[in-house]
Write a structure and sequence with these properties.
It comes from Winogradskyella arenosi. This is Subunit length determinant protein. Keywords: Membrane, Transmembrane, Transmembrane helix. This protein has 11 helices and 5 strands, in the order ααβαααβααβαααββα. It is α+β, with helices and mostly antiparallel strands and 350 residues long. It has 3 domains: 94 residues; 141 residues, no CATH class; 89 residues. Strands 1, 2, 3, 4 and 5 form a 5-stranded antiparallel beta sheet that branches. Helix 1 packs across helix 11, helix 2 packs antiparallel against helix 11 and helix 9 runs antiparallel to helix 10. The chain is flat. The two termini are 70 Å apart.
Length: 350
């Protein structure tokens, strides 16, 4: 038995060595797998570029020709102008806004000039110059996002508050999560944009938004009546209390009362007056909040920034034909060369 005891450390060293070897082999396989992935991506990239490099003369001529054609088109076509309208929606009118923007674009795509001129109350020639409408969220400051997140927390169950952090909420926001939106209109006519405001104003009003406003107004009316009644009762109580104090002060018997009773009555009077004053201020503050809410949100939307009188020229490179055509030709050539290789592979396959 004593002869076997010294062999235990050696066995443990052997087991640890095998464990480290196994871990090392596992890491080797993992890094080899990652390497094969990158090698495959690189090989695919080279496989796509190889025919373009092999036929670089054809590719170069095609790209130059596409650039020239795009440049000519850009110089001969009508310029495109754009302008932004920034609005803040109320009573969930943002859903109707999104639907109507899609509807306007559908009318433009269908070349329904008559309907467009009716909606925006412009002539057919001007309506024909409309190109597209875009709807984007914002602009929003960091403070706006914090307020929106706080509003979200107040609207959900308390058990769900810790389920979604601020960062996750911002990352998961959709187009209609906020209340401020930018409407961008594109047109070939530079001075058409102010005429579009009247038509866009119609998009915010719908039956659902009307119902939301009516519910808000009804609740505000009930709350205002309740606060006004409470304030009236408090005012009557103050008058009654002041009358009692006046009568007490005129009572000659108080001057001969026990000296210890005087400060007690004075202290009680001061406390009551202060409590009534604090309550009155609280009621008036709540009443002002209700009135402010009605005054601030008495429409379905607010225009933060209107369209410009004259639109700005669209200078984005991505919208230029001399940029888009070469890209399109390059993609077309790439697909064409790959298709030719595929056909050759099928013919030579045995």
């Amino acid at each position: 038995m004593s002869e076997k005891l010294p062999q235990q450390p050696q066995n443990e060293e052997v087991d640890l060595g095998q464990l480290f070897n196994a871990i090392g082999k596992l890491f080797d396989k993992f890094f080899a797998f990652i390497g094969r992935i990158f090698k495959g991506i690189f090989s695919a990239f080279i496989y796509v570029l190889k025919p373009l490099v092999h036929h670089f003369k054809i590719v170069g001529i095609a790209l130059v020709a596409a650039f020239i054609v795009g440049f000519v088109i850009e110089k001969t076509k009508k310029p495109i102008y754009f302008s932004d309208l920034i609005v803040k929606t109320h009573f969930d009118s943002k859903y109707q806004l999104k639907s109507d923007i899609d509807y306007f674009n559908a009318l433009i795509s269908a070349d329904n000039i008559e309907e467009l001129s009716t909606i925006f109350e412009i002539d057919s020639a001007s309506a024909k110059q409309l190109k597209v409408f875009e709807l984007r969220a914002g602009p929003e400051t960091q403070n706006d996002l914090f307020l929106e997140y706080d509003e979200y927390l107040q609207s959900v169950d308390t058990s769900l508050v810790n389920e979604l952090s601020y960062g996750e909420y911002i990352n998961n926001r959709g187009l209609l999560s906020g209340h401020i939106f930018t409407i961008t209109a594109y047109s070939s006519k530079q001075n058409i944009f102010l005429d579009l405001t009247k038509g866009l104003k119609k998009t915010f009003e719908n039956e659902y938004s009307k119902h939301q406003m009516q519910v808000r107004d009804t609740i505000a009316y009930i709350e205002r009546q309740s606060l006004t009644t409470e304030l009236s009762r408090l005012d009557s109580l103050q008058k009654t209390y002041l009358e009692v104090l006046k009568n007490d002060s005129q009572n000659k018997a108080l001057s001969f009362a026990i000296s210890s009773s005087i400060p007690l009555q004075q202290e009680r009077s001061i406390t009551k007056e202060y409590e009534l004053f604090i309550k009155e201020q609280e009621i008036r503050r709540n009443l002002n909040e209700v009135n402010s809410l009605i005054a601030e949100e008495n429409t379905y939307f607010d225009i933060i920034s209107d369209f410009d009188k004259f639109g700005s020229y669209d200078k984005l490179l991505i919208n230029r034909f001399y940029f888009k055509l070469p890209i399109f030709v390059l993609l077309l050539l790439t697909v064409g060369f790959l298709f030719i290789k595929f056909i050759r592979f099928i013919k030579n396959y045995e």
